[in-house]
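Continuing from the previous page...

OK, I double-checked the sequence for Carbohydrate kinase against my notes and this is the correct one:
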Amino acid sequence: MGHSCLIGIDIGTSAVKAILIDTDGNLLADYLRPLVMSRPSARHAEQDPADWMDGVLAALTEFASGHDLSGLAGIGITSQVNTHVFTGSDGAALLPAITWQDTRCAADAATLAAHIDAEQQRTWFGTPVPIDASHALSRLAHVARVHPDVYAKTRYVLLPKDYCVMRLTGSVCSDAISAVRLARGQGYVTDLLDLVPRAHDLLPELRDFHYVAGHVRDGMPCAGTPVVVGAMDAWAGMFGSGVLHAGAAMYQSGTSEILGIISPTVNPTPGVVVFPPYDDIVLHAAPTQSGGAAVQWVSRLLSVPTGRLSALAANTEPGPSIPLFLPHLEGERAPIWDAGSRGAFAGIDSTVGAAETARSVMEGVAFSARWAFQALQQSSNVVLAQANISGGGSRSDIWCQIRADALGFALKRTAVSDAAVLGAALLAGVGTEVVGSVAAAVREFVRFDRTFEPQSAHRDYYDEKFARFQSLYRALRPII
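Thanks. Re-ran it with the corrected sequence; updated structure tokens here:
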């Protein structure tokens, strides 16, 4: 009999990631398979759901072939959200998945938003965040309008994690937190779903994160293993970065930056997503549009591998030689929720080279995070001294230092880079009763490797430049 172990899987934007851990939290194996984002036309950003399942099955196969999984207790899956798959009655995808980066549904979102006033938004969602192009109902309304034949054949509209759980187990369910701006408590907001025909029928039933949705089907790797419902990436990453109690904050750095503070106090603040309470946790969240995505873009632009950008940026110092960068390459989410904004460099002179450009992009992403954290601190009535940072973008020491300096508070970095995948495994442990509670699992599984303190010598530089960052956005908005 093998030692008891758990598998966590993250269907991210850029890759399928997986880990195999023992129940002491020790990493036994990990897996990564890149994913392709297809942009067939303006404002479209799509993925093939079959690629997600290929990654999931490949991870399970690799773990099973290299390890004794006779003690495998459970599998947890997390994923990007506001990414939607329209499936037929046989479970097959009828269209490429419409990802969270896709803004084609903006017109349908505006039509829906016109039917919902600010008071209803506050009642339903706790804060006045309008229906946007990534909202599930915007996607349903768009497909019903543009592809009525597909809509007629649709049986379910699912998030990536829920699609993969369905393909693995045959069970269809989700959770109330991942049903972003659709649910209140443990159920859907009925009046909201009434705005789109068939919405009630197409969305999955809601369960707890750690509820065992089903067991891996016969003929698949790890057949018979329990699979839990899982949580969205922000919440799985929150648990996986050790953020669990009121006043604690997270900074997840992936394709986008996902920022959050836990607080029972809610001061309704434009641009902040306040999730409904879950196990006495109230998460105030602010996802930006572009973090690692901006670094990947400048990497391609400069023909420099992403790993080399940190070394380039480390050879620069804060100062007038560093241009100002607005990282709105695909618009911006929190806190301004402006899909029409676009990126820009300002203050470029002839001395600017690859190193200055790399640092400029890292600073620009840090300023986006600062703007979002300002709104979060107002929403939660919390003044931050520290946030726990995780994700692929947290592996760069120079970028972590730039962020700490720009934010003005410390960043404590997790030892496991992908906190979301650890959080997924942690929830599998709770669901299969390998660990007694989420709090116990966090204590046992989450570890840190370094804390980045803000350097007071650079405070004036970042304060002044952040003010110019906001001014640049406002000045450019009428002409972009």
